[in-house]
């Protein structure tokens, strides 16, 4: 970050907005399904309204298998086309894919973290995007995509004439600004990971008396932001080369069906599991602290008001007894 010393979040927000707008312009000009870019100023990006909602809001099992298959194939085609144009999204998931009101049209959003296919982590990040999508469709849409629908970056022919990352640089977003933004994103992710690890260790000490994790293990896990973000995907879709991918996803989908549990119970169990993440635990502890503070404040106010009312009444009653 040059001579800036410590990154300012306002400065980084401005860089993120510049990169978002530049990539949106390039993608929209090449007819990718993105919002129409209107203008950008400081940390604000104006774009056309997207009629739809994030795919993350879909209820589990609500989409028929044939529609889920079409949506998955469309998403894979979008990933392939991005790679053919020299780009990897790096956050291609249900939160950044907007499903249209017709249930099939999809709009892609969120571009500050996009990188070139020439990046040294390009293959790893592309695989993470694919695995993230497989996990969502398996767990939420109850659809297990066949292996022939999945992609690998090595199998895609990247056009040397359609590198949109070079177009973005030509639009004025420099390599230096991109490096500063990616470094800030990396440091923020590592910090969040380390904070989450501390909460997880504290929780383990309270419940099970486990020992604190080795510092070397934490450092190794946080050496790159990409490993931090890929931790969950590896648990579900890891071992695909050994033929274990489908079995792992099947186990997840079939869990509880033998006992006759309903979809609602599965959703509740899934929600409870999500709450066990380190970040969620930290949020719960913060909420409990705020609740305790509010409760103590209410008790204090109640006692104070009660004294204001009761003490004068007691004095009045004593005065009447003395006068009588």
What does the overall shape look like? elongated
CATH superfamily of the largest domain: Transferase(Phosphotransferase) domain 1
Distance between the termini: 84 Å
Number of distinct beta strands: 7
Radius of gyration (CA) equals 26 Å
SSE topology string: HEEEHEEEEHHHHHHHH
Which sequence of strands runs across the widest sheet?
Answer: 3-5-6
Question: What is the average of the pLDDT values?
Answer: 74
Total count of domains: 2
Number of helices: 10
Q: How much helicity do the residues have? A: 55-70%
Low-confidence parts lasting 5 or more residues at pLDDT below 50? 207-233, 235-262
Query: Quick one: biggest sheet?
Result: 3 strands, antiparallel
The helix-and-strand class reads: mainly alpha
Q: What is this structure's SSE topology?
A:
Layout: H1 9-29, E1 37-41, E2 44-47, E3 52-54, H2 65-84, E4 87-88, E5 97-100, E6 106-108, E7 115-116, H3 122-139, H4 164-170, H5 175-207, H6 215-221, H7 225-237, H8 245-254, H9 263-274, H10 278-323
Antiparallel strand pairs: 1-2, 3-5, 4-7, 5-6
Helix pairs in contact: 1-4, 1-5, 2-3, 3-7, 5-10
Note down, in words, how this protein is organized:
By secondary structure, the protein is mainly α. It has 2 domains: 9-274, Transferase(Phosphotransferase), domain 1, CATH 1.10.510; 278-324. The protein has 10 helices and 7 strands. Strands 3-5-6 form a 3-stranded antiparallel β-sheet, covered by helices on one side. The chain has a two-stranded antiparallel ribbon with strand order 1-2. Strands 4-7 form a two-stranded antiparallel sheet. Strand 1 (37-41) and strand 2 form a beta hairpin. Helix 1 crosses helix 4 (164-170), helix 1 crosses helix 5 (175-207) and helix 3 packs across helix 7 (225-237). The longest helix has 46 residues, at 278-323. The protein is elongated. The relative contact order is 0.10. The model is unreliable at 207-233 and 235-262 (pLDDT under 50).
């Amino acid at each position: 970050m040059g001579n800036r010393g410590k990154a300012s979040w306002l400065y980084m927000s401005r860089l993120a907005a510049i990169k978002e707008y530049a990539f949106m312009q390039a993608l929209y000009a090449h007819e990718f399904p993105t919002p129409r870019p209107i203008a950008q100023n400081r940390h604000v990006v104006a774009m056309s309204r997207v009629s739809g909602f994030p795919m993350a809001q879909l209820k589990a099992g609500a989409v028929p298998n044939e529609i889920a298959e079409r949506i998955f194939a469309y998403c894979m085609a979008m990933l392939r086309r991005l790679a053919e144009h020299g780009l990897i999204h790096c956050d291609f998931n249900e939160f950044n894919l907007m499903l249209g009101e017709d249930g099939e049209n999809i709009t892609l959003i969120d571009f500050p973290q996009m990188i070139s296919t020439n990046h040294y982590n390009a293959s790893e990040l592309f695989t993470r995007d694919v695995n993230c999508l497989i996990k969502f469709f398996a767990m939420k849409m109850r659809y297990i995509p066949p292996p022939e629908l999945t992609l690998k970056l090595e199998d895609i022919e990247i056009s040397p004439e359609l590198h949109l990352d070079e177009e973005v640089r030509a639009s004025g977003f420099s390599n230096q600004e991109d490096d500063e933004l990616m470094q800030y994103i990396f440091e923020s992710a590592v910090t969040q990971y380390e904070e989450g690890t501390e909460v997880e260790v504290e929780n383990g000490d309270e419940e099970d008396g486990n020992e604190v994790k080795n510092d070397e293990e934490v450092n190794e896990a946080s050496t790159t932001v990409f490993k931090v973000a890929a931790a969950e995907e590896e648990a579900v879709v890891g071992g695909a080369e050994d033929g274990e991918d489908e079995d792992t996803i099947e186990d997840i989908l079939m869990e509880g069906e033998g006992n006759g549990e309903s979809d609602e119970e599965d959703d509740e169990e899934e929600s409870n599991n999500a709450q066990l993440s380190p970040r969620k635990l930290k949020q719960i502890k913060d909420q409990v602290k705020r609740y305790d503070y509010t409760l103590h404040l209410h008790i204090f106010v109640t006692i104070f008001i009660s004294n204001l009312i009761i003490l004068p009444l007691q004095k009045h009653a004593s005065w009447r007894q003395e006068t009588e």
